[in-house]
Amino acid sequence: MVDLRPRLAPLLIGLLLTGCAASGNVQDIQPGERPDLETDEAGLWMKMDRAEADMRSSGKVVRDSQLQAYLEGIVCELAPDYCQDIRVYLVRNPGFNASMSPNGAMVVWTGLLLRCENEAQLAFVLGHELAHYIQRHSLKRWRDLRATTSGMAFFQFATAITGFGLVGDLATLGALGGVMAFSRDHEREADRIGLRLAQGAGYSGAEAAKIWDYLQREKDAADDGDGFIFFASHPPSDERRDTLAELATATAGEGRRGAEAFRRLTAGHRLAWLRDELRLRDYARMEVLTAHLLEAGDAPGAVHFLRGELHRLRGEEGDDGKAVAAYYAALKTRQAPAETYRSLGLVLWSMEKPREAQSAFRHYLRRRPKADDRAMVEDYINQLN
Length: 385
Ligand SMILES: [Zn+2]
Known about the structure:
Mean pLDDT: 83
Low-confidence stretches: 1-21, 163-179
Number of domains: 2
Distance between the termini: 50 Å
Bound molecules: zinc ion
Number of helices: 20
Strand content: under 5%
Number of strands: 3
Radius of gyration: 23 Å
Shape: elongated
Largest sheet: 3 strands, mixed
Helix content: 55-70%
Oligomer: single chain
Strand order of the largest sheet: 1-3-2
Order of helices and strands: HHHEEEHHHHHHHHHHHHHHHHH
């Protein structure tokens, strides 16, 4: 993360000097509203504006104009009056996370899109984030903290909200998650409003509980539950999922799920986003994620391949056989990436099946005659003779 401290200091002093205000009387932000320049809220916005500019030039923002227009379209359907006030940034990062800055910058991680099964689930999460904006939750949290804690915690908070939009330093974001966390009441409120916005736009409310349920399963399986950035700032609970399910049943007609458009616009990215997840090396979590994606039936060639990769890289008892089965499942779909053959060759080699391994390597070179690693793979084939 960029070290923001030197730039922050003068602003912080300014903010510390502004009068203390209770968070109780904070009104919803109105469409088109910007805070008065002399307020503490204006200070928050200024910092977020800078963080946003840093993020825009960070190279992490996904350039896909169709997908970008799609995300912005959902936000505008959810909250038409606030459409002009919100900017959406899709950033290339594994893991489920979204954040909402008080100045209207909404950050959505690609790992979030990877885990949603359809547009309705995505719309609920975006609606939840919009609720934090409309209800001015960051400002309320800021004022509560200021009233109850020392200058140091205050400093941490300022760093956290400024850094929150930046991507790349997961450890720092995780450590700051606690400071950044919205209160349980804010979370409940955001769930309720997010659901109302999604249903108001015609989405099936039942999907809200489903995405929450899935995330809980993935978290339970994870090696390190604390690595869940979203949960660091959005504490999950069974109670929350149940409340969502109840709210959805109480208020829902059927509603649309928007599975087709969602799939069409995200399917081409799945292989790349799954590779990002694999780099986290949290194999148990990856197992839950790939099983989830296979159930949904999206891009099965890519998902089976990555499932094979997780077994190959983990290399525990029985993993070789599981890897081979997954690679064959990928190849059956006819959408498997060429690397499926190379990986298959490597595992078969380690299982001492030289002939099958050779055949897999040859298939790889036929599929990708100009592969960068051609010389190396030809060498493998010779060694296996
Ligand atoms: Zn939240």
